[in-house]
Write a structure and sequence with these properties.
By secondary structure, the protein is α/β, with parallel strands linked by helices. The chain folds into 4 domains: about 60 residues; about 100 residues, Nucleic acid-binding proteins (OB fold (Dihydrolipoamide Acetyltransferase, E2P), Beta Barrel); about 180 residues, P-loop containing nucleotide triphosphate hydrolases (Rossmann fold, 3-Layer(aba) Sandwich); about 160 residues, P-loop containing nucleotide triphosphate hydrolases (Rossmann fold), CATH 3.40.50. Helices cover about 35% and strands about 20% of the residues. It contains 21 helices and 24 strands. Helix 12 links the parallel strand 14 and strand 15. Helix 6 packs across helix 7, helix 9 runs parallel beside helix 10 and helix 17 packs antiparallel against helix 19. The protein is globular. The C terminus is likely disordered. It binds adenosine-5'-diphosphate and magnesium ion. Magnesium ion binds next to helix 10. It catalyses: ATP + H2O = ADP + phosphate + H(+); Couples ATP hydrolysis with the unwinding of duplex DNA by translocating in the 3'-5' direction. InterPro entries: ATP-dep_DNA_helicase_RecG, DEAD/DEAH_box_helicase_dom, Helicase_ATP-bd, Helicase_C-like, NA-bd_OB-fold, P-loop_NTPase, RecG/Mfd, RecG_dom3_C. It is an enzyme of class 5 (isomerase).
């Protein structure tokens, strides 16, 4: 067998176990080796019964003297017995494992590992791990050494996985594919050693050595993928070439009702430089909520327009598409540029001449002819699948692509997963923005907070968002979410008797959503109760208070985005955070919101505390969770990047990498097993 062999090549792994493996993301022998232990049990201290001390974790070799199934006083089924070696006798108990008696009958020689405790005031081993010894007392595997414990799924116990990994290791040919100097340079053990050390270590240091090498492979893979994507992208040539007319672009910038921030100007320069080139732009524009990304994208649309070409802007929701449409109409009001909002209601033949199409992912399936598109803008791309993005880009030939996100992407992640994109970052806010005073409000102050909110509405004409989280951990609302926000809405109605409340959730028709948002915008509604559909992009300058319920369900970056919905006008603004937790780690995490006002800082913090899933939302984000390496390991990210770059530059030196990545004259390095190596 080799690393690519399917898992079903292992003895006794049929369709049923294959499915179970699949659930752990394991399809090949290699996947199995990369399923690293979550921890190890130190069963390496082998001793005799007379030397046992309470609380020690030990292994003994002994003979079963007696064993029986009994019921405890509370009715729990127990397996209680005694074992003996040449130094003495010891009590052993298990719970709810009646089948044990079939294997562990009197006279059998066993190796038992576990923690020494008391039972009926006598020393005993409670629920020890066990394995049968031959008369010769052969080598133990599940006891008597460092024993790995694996992340489990129902039906695949650690004990079973251990045996399968042992079988696989004994029969698989494991070839090293990195050259010696890379291994020496990174102080890495060979691949075969690494797998052995991770799964069958003599001690923790060995396990760590093995892990380090596997982590290196894991991140190197990501690096190569994005570098290969990058070099493949560079094979593209722009069909609809753009000329940059600087003086007219300058006219547009001067026509804006505000002065650009320094980083907006810098980002625009970077974009304009790309747009003038032959190789299509592939750039990520990253900036905190409210940092002014739209106008930066608008410059690109303007350039395309000046050249007689079209722009396509894709937003994650209908609300945001409408908002982009309105904002851009305002920005371009002095120019003869025409926008079309592509909704499902629009009839193709009603579309007049269009310079900028704005829409949601439905753009992907639109029948409109996009052959004149020279510039594509994708807003909040993590909300779309990679697949959707690729479809859109394909459909429009080889346009320049600008992806925008308010999701603060930690440095290490930007260097790997997004390594194929050039990066522009908006580091500062437009002038005159103010900090949103933030409080984590204890439950006992809830009534007081409601009274305060009423006063703010009456005295200061404040408008308020109240956001209820989704119940399930998903990116899409379920009916249960709608029910829960609706019941909270009714509840709030009975609190805010003299105020006008509106309800907004994703299951409303887009016309209903627009109506409610319009009412909120015009001040007809005082309090908007909503699900996190308000999270991205909604711009209502008069709203000054953001209330977030069950905030522990959000990542800090998500909370920060919600908070960014207020504090957009000149009025003092507030964010009130409610949580079901009033102490402990979850609570401490939320308190960070009171002190930090930087999305990047909060994202880095969450990365440390909870991992990347929290920053990027769930499944749809397309964001890879690392199985072995840590996103906080900056050294590793740097080292793998260097090696990956060297592989691309000096393919001859890395011929053995071929087992994973194949080199072709036409495309350069490409992943032999990935299909995302096409020219997009
Ligand atoms: P985001 O980066 O969150 O998409 P927007 O592009 O929606 O931010 O901009 C937020 C608001 O800030 C908009 O009303 C926009 O007109 C305004 N804005 C953008 N740039 C500036 C600037 N340099 N000075 C003042 N206001 C600006
Ligand atoms: Mg935006």
């Amino acid at each position: 067998m080799n690393l690519d062999s399917p898992i079903s090549n292992l003895p006794k792994v049929g369709p049923i176990f294959e499915k179970k493996f699949e659930r752990l993301g394991i399809n090949t022998i290699e996947d199995l080796f990369y399923h690293v232990p979550s921890r190890y049990l130190d069963y390496s201290l082998i001793t005799t019964i007379n030397k046992l001390r309470a609380d020690e974790t030990v292994t003994i070799h002994a003979k079963i003297a007696s064993i029986a199934n009994i019921f405890s006083k509370r009715g729990v089924r127990m397996q209680i017995g005694s074992v003996e070696d040449e130094t003495g006798k010891l009590m052993v108990v298990w719970f709810n494992q009646p089948f044990l008696l079939k294997m562990l009958y009197p006279g059998r020689l066993v190796s038992l590992s576990g923690k020494v405790g008391f039972f009926n005031r006598k020393l005993c081993l409670s629920s020890p791990d066990y394995e049968i010894l031959d008369e010769e007392g052969d080598q133990t595997f599940h006891t008597g050494r460092f024993v790995p414990v694996y992340p489990e799924t129902s039906g695949l116990s650690s004990k079973w996985l251990r045996t399968k990994i042992r079988d696989a290791f004994a029969t698989t040919e494991i070839e090293e594919y990195l050259p010696k100097d890379v291994l020496t340079g990174g102080a890495l053990v060979s691949l075969k050693d690494a797998i052995q050390k991770v799964h069958f270590p003599k001690n923790l240091e060995e396990a760590e050595e093995g892990r380090k090498r596997l982590a290196f492979n894991e991140v190197l893979n990501l690096q190569l993928k994005s570098l290969i994507r990058k070099s493949n992208w560079k094979e593209n040539r722009v069909i609809n070439r753009l000329e940059i007319n600087s003086s007219v672009v300058q006219q547009f910038i001067s026509s804006l009702p505000f002065k650009l921030t320094e980083s907006q100007s810098k980002a625009m320069d970077e974009i304009l430089k790309d747009l003038g080139g032959e190789i299509p732009m592939n750039r990520l524009l990253e900036g905190d909520v409210g940092s002014g990304k739209t106008v930066v994208a608008a410059v690109g649309a303007f350039v395309a327009f000046l050249n007689g070409y079209q722009t396509l802007i894709m937003a994650p929701t209908q609300i945001l598409a409408s908002q982009h449409y309105e904002t851009l109409n305002r920005l371009f009001s002095k120019f003869k540029l025409r926008l079309s909002l592509l909704t499902s209601a629009v009839k193709l033949h009603d579309l007049g001449r269009t310079d900028v199409f704005v829409g949601t992912h439905s753009l992907i399936h639109s029948k409109v002819d996009f052959s004149k598109v020279a510039f594509v803008v994708i807003d909040e791309q993590h909300r779309f699948g990679v697949e959707q993005r690729r479809h859109l880009v394909k459909k429009t030939g080889t346009p320049h692509v600008l992806t925008m996100t308010a999701t603060p992407i930690p440095r290490t992640v930007a260097l790997t997963t997004y390594g194929d994109l050039d990066l522009s970052v908006l580091t500062e806010m437009p002038e005159g923005r103010q900090k949103v005073t933030t409080w984590v409000v204890p439950e006992i102050k809830r009534d007081g907070a409601y009274e305060w909110m009423k006063k703010q509405i009456i005295n200061n004409k404040s408008q308020i968002f109240i956001v209820c989280p989704l119940i399930e951990d998903s990116d899409t609302e379920t009916l249960a979410d709608v029910k829960s926000v609706t019941s909270e809405f009714l509840n709030l109605k009975s609190v805010f008797i003299n105020q006008k409340l509106g309800l907004l959730h994703g299951r409303l028709k887009s016309k209903e959503k627009d109506e409610i948002l319009d009412k909120f915008r015009s001040g007809t509604i005082d309090i908007l109760v909503a699900t996190p559909v308000v999270e991205v992009g909604i711009d209502i300058p008069n709203a000054t208070i953001m209330v977030i319920e069950a905030a522990e369900r959000f990542g800090l970056a998500g909370l920060h985005q919600l908070r960014g919905r207020v504090g957009r006008g000149s009025k003092r603004s507030y964010c009130l955070i409610f949580s079901n937790y009033h102490s402990g780690a979850a609570y401490t995490r939320l308190r960070a919101m009171e002190k930090s006002y930087s999305g990047f800082e909060l994202a880095e913090l969450d990365l440390k505390l909870r991992g990347p899933g929290e920053i990027f939302g769930t499944a749809q984000s397309g964001f890879p969770e690392l199985k072995i390496a840590s996103w906080n390991n900056f050294e590793l990210i740097k080292a793998t990047k260097e090696v990956a770059e060297d592989i691309i530059k000096n393919p001859k030196k890395y011929t053995l990498v071929k087992t994973k990545f194949e080199y072709t004259k036409k495309y350069g390095w490409r992943l032999s097993y990935l299909n995302d190596v096409t020219h997009v």
